[in-house]
From TrEMBL:
It is an enzyme of class 1 (oxidoreductase). It comes from Megalops atlanticus. Residues 77-280 form the Fatty acid desaturase domain. The lineage of its organism: Eukaryota, Metazoa, Chordata, Craniata, Vertebrata. It is found in: Endoplasmic reticulum membrane. This is stearoyl-CoA 9-desaturase. The histidine box domains are involved in binding the catalytic metal ions. It is a multi-pass membrane protein. Its main location: endoplasmic reticulum. One of its GO terms (molecular function) is iron ion binding. Keywords: Endoplasmic reticulum, Fatty acid biosynthesis, Fatty acid metabolism, Iron, Lipid biosynthesis, Lipid metabolism, Membrane, Metal-binding, Oxidoreductase, Transmembrane, Transmembrane helix.
Length: 333
C-alpha cells in the first residue's frame, strides 16, 4: 500500500502529531477559517476603557515615584503579589484552564483562581475562551489580539475597542464544557467583581498596613496599582513582542517567536513559537525549568501530589518538527 502523509495544513502543523496526547481542547490552529472579504468593520473605541487604562498607568508611574518611600518589607510583599498573580495567569488561566496541559487538585485550583483574581485580567472562563480563539484562529480577524494589526493593538489596543464580530462568532462555537464543569471556574466567574476588589486591591494594600504599619497610600500604589500594571504589561508582551521579535526554531510559517525578554518577564511564557507549535505542552518550552518559573511551580505541585498528568511533547517529535518546519535556529540544551 501507498505510504500516506499525515494531513498537514499550510502552517505545517500536522494533525497527526497531537494523536496520543489526547488534545481535548480546541487550541489547535484551524486553517479552514477564511477572513471575510471586503472592508473591515469600523473600529469602535470604548472610551471608558481608554480613560481607565490611562489612569491606571498614571497611577503606576506615581507608584514608581514613591517607590523609595516604601519599606523593604513592602517591596518584598509586592514581589509576592506579583508572583501569586502571575501564577494565577500562567499556571492557572493559561496552562491549566485554556490548554488543559496538566490536571490539578481542588486546593491548587482554588489557589490559582485566587491568584487569577489578584491579576484582574477578566475571569478565567472569559480569558480561556479568548485564548482558545487566539490559538485556533491565530492572527486573523477571529483572533482577539490579532498581531497583524500591529504592536499597539496586540498589546493593549484590543482592550480599548469593540471586538471583531468574528471573534465572538467563532468563540460561541467553541467547546467549553470542561470550563463549565469546573466549579472553581464558575464560582470565580459568579463572584468575579468582589474577588477582584478583595484580591487585586484590598489585600495588597491592607496586608502591609496591618502587619508592619506601611501607609495605606503606599500600599495602594505600590503592591496595588504598580504591581497590577507590571503583571498586565508582562502578559500583554506575550501577545505583542513575542508575536513580532525573535527566532522561529519550530515553525517558521507562523508569527509567534521565541523571545528571551518576554520569557523572563512573563515567568516562562516567552517561548511562543514553541507554544503555538505544541500548545498542549505543560511547560510551553522544551527546556524544562530553565527561565521558566511556572514550570518549576507545576513540577513542585506534582511532587507534592497536588497536580498530575503533565503533557509533554517528546524529544523526537520536537526535533523532527524543528527539522521539517523550523527556521534553522533550533539548538538543543
Ligand atoms: C486583560 C486580558 O488584560 C489579558 C489577556 C492576555 C492573553 C495573553 C495570552 C498570552 C499567553 C499566556 C501568557 C501569560 C503570561 C502571564 C505573565 C504574568 C507576569 N467568544 O467582551 P464584550 C461575547 S483584561 C465567545 O463586551 P465587546 C460576550 O460573552 C484587563 N463570545 O465584547 C458577550 O456576550 P453576551 C482588564 C464572546 O463589546 C458579547 O460577546 N479588563 C467572546 O466587543 C460582548 O462581549 C479589561 O480591561 C469570545 N471570545 O467589548 C476589560 N468575546 O452579551 C476589557 C466576547 O451574550 N474588556 N464574547 O454576554 C472589555 O471592556 C470588552 O471586552 C471590550 C470588547 C471593550 C474589549
Ligand atoms: Zn496558549
Ligand atoms: Zn500567541
Amino acid at each position: 500500500p501507498k505510504m500516506t502523509e499525515t494531513k498537514t495544513n499550510p502552517s505545517g502543523q500536522s494533525n497527526g502529531e497531537v494523536v496520543g496526547v489526547s488534545s481535548t481542547v480546541e487550541d489547535v490552529f484551524d486553517d479552514t477559517y477564511k477572513e471575510k472579504e471586503g472592508p473591515k468593520p469600523p473600529r469602535k473605541i470604548v472610551w471608558i476603557n481608554v480613560v481607565l487604562m490611562t489612569l491606571l498607568h498614571i497611577g503606576a508611574l506615581y507608584g514608581v515615584i514613591i517607590l523609595p518611600s516604601a519599606s523593604v518589607l513592602t517591596l518584598g510583599w509586592s514581589v509576592v503579589c506579583f508572583l501569586i498573580s502571575a501564577l494565577g495567569v500562567t499556571a492557572g488561566a493559561h496552562r491549566l484552564w485554556s490548554h488543559r496541559s496538566y490536571k490539578a487538585s481542588l486546593p491548587l485550583r482554588v489557589f490559582l483562581a485566587v491568584g487569577n483574581s489578584m491579576a484582574f485580567q477578566n475571569d478565567i472562563f472569559e480569558w480561556a475562551r479568548d485564548h482558545r480563539v487566539h490559538h485556533k484562529y491565530s492572527e486573523t480577524d477571529a483572533d482577539p489580539h490579532n498581531a497583524v494589526r500591529g504592536f499597539f493593538f496586540a498589546h493593549i489596543g484590543w482592550l480599548l475597542v469593540r471586538k471583531h464580530p468574528d471573534v465572538i462568532e467563532k468563540g460561541r462555537r467553541l467547546e467549553l464544557n470542561d470550563l463549565k464543569a469546573d466549579k472553581v471556574v464558575m464560582f470565580q466567574r459568579k463572584y468575579y467583581r468582589l474577588s477582584v476588589l478583595v484580591m487585586c486591591f484590598l489585600v495588597p494594600m491592607l496586608v502591609p498596613w496591618y502587619l508592619w504599619g506601611e501607609s495605606l497610600w503606599v500600599g495602594y500604589f505600590v503592591p496595588g496599582l504598580l504591581r497590577y500594571t507590571i503583571v498586565l504589561n508582562a502578559t500583554w508582551l506575550v501577545n505583542s513582542a513575542a508575536h513580532m521579535w525573535g527566532n522561529r526554531p519550530y515553525d517558521q510559517s507562523i508569527n509567534p517567536r521565541e523571545n528571551k525578554f518576554v520569557t523572563f518577564s512573563a515567568i516562562g511564557e516567552g517561548f511562543h513559537n514553541y507554544h503555538h507549535t505544541f500548545p498542549y505542552d505543560y511547560s510551553t518550552s522544551e527546556f524544562g525549568c530553565k527561565l521558566n518559573l511556572t514550570t518549576c511551580f507545576i513540577d513542585l505541585m506534582c511532587f507534592l501530589g497536588l497536580a498530575w498528568d503533565r503533557k509533554k511533547a517528546s524529544r523526537e517529535l520536537i526535533l523532527a518538527r524543528a527539522q521539517r518546519t523550523g527556521d534553522g535556529s533550533h539548538r538543543s540544551g
